[in-house]
Design brief:
By secondary structure, this protein is of the alpha/beta class. It has 10 helices and 5 strands, in the order ααβαβααβααβααβα. It has helices spanning 2-31, 42-61, 80-90, 98-101, 108-117, 128-136, 139-150, 162-168, 170-173, 185-196, and strands spanning 66-71, 95-96, 119-126, 153-157, 178-179. It has a 5-stranded parallel beta sheet, sandwiched between helices. Helix 3 links the parallel strand 1 (66-71) and strand 2 (95-96). The termini are far apart. The relative contact order is 0.16.
């Protein structure tokens, strides 16, 4: 009996936290400007459509989860990764980002593991630094392995190409994705936001 009461209390607390976060997101959304429109290629539409469906399903089954987990190389944490994080948040996407979500004195690996578990979609920011990290099999390589197992991944190449990625991770490169080769990082962020958190939700 006590176990059932504790379970019900935990569920109630999770529901209340999810409702509070939804209220906060809705309030913040009203303060933000509408996202600019972007143009999609055929392959982007084909790739992002199932991601959007997956994100929508996840939002119903796991309302407590973040919209995205941002996987990036350590060297990008104050550069491209932070820029993408800030852009996504400005477009009302709830992002798990190690720079703000790993408290000092806690286990980085354990925090990342929890962040992966508590996120609906994974964004992999592929830069020259990330390619080096994958070659060295660092923490980013472990994050990537976990994300690839979920089949909920959007690779984003920035200052590199999918051809270069194919040399380090053929499995990730085979998923197509988004690139800043023909779009700005802002446009890429809008496309991600539109897929994982449509403005009319």
């Amino acid at each position: 009996m006590k176990t059932e009461v504790k379970k019900a209390e935990r569920q109630l607390e999770r529901d209340m936290n999810a409702a509070a976060r939804k209220w906060e997101r809705d309030a913040n959304r009203k303060l933000r400007a509408t996202r600019p429109s972007v143009t999609y290629t055929t392959s982007e539409r084909r790739y992002l459509s199932p991601v959007q469906q997956q994100a929508e399903r996840q939002s119903y089954t796991h309302p407590e989860r973040r919209d995205v987990f941002l996987c990036h190389a350590w060297d990008d944490r104050e550069g491209a990764a932070k820029e993408l994080h800030d852009l996504l948040e400005s477009f009302d996407v709830d992002v798990w980002f190690s720079e703000k979500d790993v408290p000092l004195g806690t286990s980085l690996i354990r925090s990342i593991d929890n962040g992966l578990k508590m996120s609906r979609i994974g964004i992999v920011l592929v830069t020259p630094a990330m390619l080096g990290s994958l070659a060295g099999q660092g923490i980013a390589d472990k994050e990537l392995s976990a994300l690839l197992a979920t089949d909920r991944v959007i690779p984003v190449t920035h200052e590199t190409t999918f051809e270069a990625l194919r040399d380090e991770s053929p499995l990730l490169a085979s998923r197509s994705g988004l690139s800043t080769e023909d779009s700005s990082l802002t446009e890429v962020a809008i496309k991600i936001a539109n897929a994982v958190r449509p403005e009319n939700d």
